[in-house]
Amino acid sequence: MNKPAGRYLRSGKVKDIYDVGEARLLLVYTNRLSSHDVMLADEIPHKGEVLCRLSTYYFSKCSISGIETHLIENPSPDQMLVKKLFLIPIEVIGRNYVYGSFWKRFQRHEVKLPEGTDPILAAKLREPIVEFTTKLESKDRLITEKDISTYGWLTPDEIDEIRTVALRLNNMMLEDAERAGFILADFKVEFGKDENDKIVLIDEIGTPDGCRFWEKSKYQPGRAQDSFDKQIVRDYLEKEKGWNKNPPKPGTKLKEPILPDQLVQKTSQRYIEAYERLTGEKF
Ligand code: C5P
């Protein structure tokens, strides 16, 4: 990859971000991979390109459906030029199944299930749920709509607008997942505001890094489900490296690669397969 233009700003788990002036940012999708909240030193070929192209696929669908997004153009298949916006400091979570932090809260009796939903792990929710968490705190924390407006982040009408958009995005992704033989268990999206206070979809959408996709043919409620993309890496680390009992501390960044070549290639193939099945396009 050529050195990206612009001033380096920061790196997330996967993306490197550059300020390229004129209120635009360049997002560079890398091949970095994390598992068990640990950044691995191994790189997965084509992963960055898969994530960038999948997000671009959904952003393009959004623009056809009248949902404004931050995408301007793709200077290359693993790069996205986007509008620089004011970040709304919340993460918007859409859920179709009882899983992850929602399941944990249910077990602690902190949340009720919609009527008719089985009270078991990975049960399908009778209706989708939208939740909000904080974004800029060290740990994501569930936040009420009342707090979001009390902090002055969004008005009640804007919260309604975001919930409606999140449900429309859910329908858009469910359609593809259904056709692809995947279950879309849940997802996260983020929003910003432009200079006219218009709400705009930012970050990324529809990627295996921000959604839980399960293989539909292997779905069995009542137990943990395999995530399509990373499960083979998780299994290897747990079985071969003993990470089931003793993983490195969350947030650790490993310095040396630890995955066998064959596993790296297989993981890369899985990301590509996810892209092809979801979009119906050749990678
Ligand atoms: O862990 P939890 O069940 O709250 O996650 C819900 C959804 O949000 C999952 O699809 C997860 O991948 C996504 N998520 C994310 N980034 C975060 C937190 C959650 O992509 N920081």
What topology does this entry show?
Layout: E1 7-11, E2 15-21, E3 24-29, E4 32-35, E5 38-43, H1 47-64, E6 71-76, E7 79-83, E8 86-87, E9 90-97, H2 100-107, E10 124-134, H3 145-150, H4 156-180, E11 182-193, E12 199-202, E13 211-215, H5 231-240, H6 261-279
Antiparallel strand pairs: 1-2, 2-3, 3-7, 4-5, 6-7, 8-11, 9-10, 9-11, 11-12, 11-13
Helix pairs in contact: 1-6, 4-6
Concise synopsis of the structure shown:
With 283 residues, the chain is α+β, with helices and mostly antiparallel strands. The protein is built from six helices and 13 strands.
What's the total number of strands? 13
CATH class placement of the largest domain = Alpha Beta
The number of helices is: 6
Mean pLDDT: 95
Residues in helix, %: 25-40%
Which class of secondary structure composition applies to the elements? alpha+beta
Strand-and-helix sequence, N→C? EEEEEHEEEEHEHHEEEHH
Architecture per CATH nomenclature, i.e. the level-2 architecture of the largest domain:
2-Layer Sandwich
Strand content is 25-35%
Looking at how many chains there are and whether they match, the oligomeric state comes to single chain
Low-confidence segments: none
What distance lies between the first and last C-alpha atoms, to the nearest angstrom?
18 Å
Largest sheet: 6 strands, antiparallel
Provide the gyration radius in Å.
Answer: 19 Å
Q: Per CATH, what is the topology of the largest domain? A: D-amino Acid Aminotransferase, Chain A, domain 1
The coarse overall form would be globular
> How many separate domains?
2
CATH homologous superfamily name of the largest domain? ATP-grasp fold, B domain
Bound molecules: cytidine-5'-monophosphate
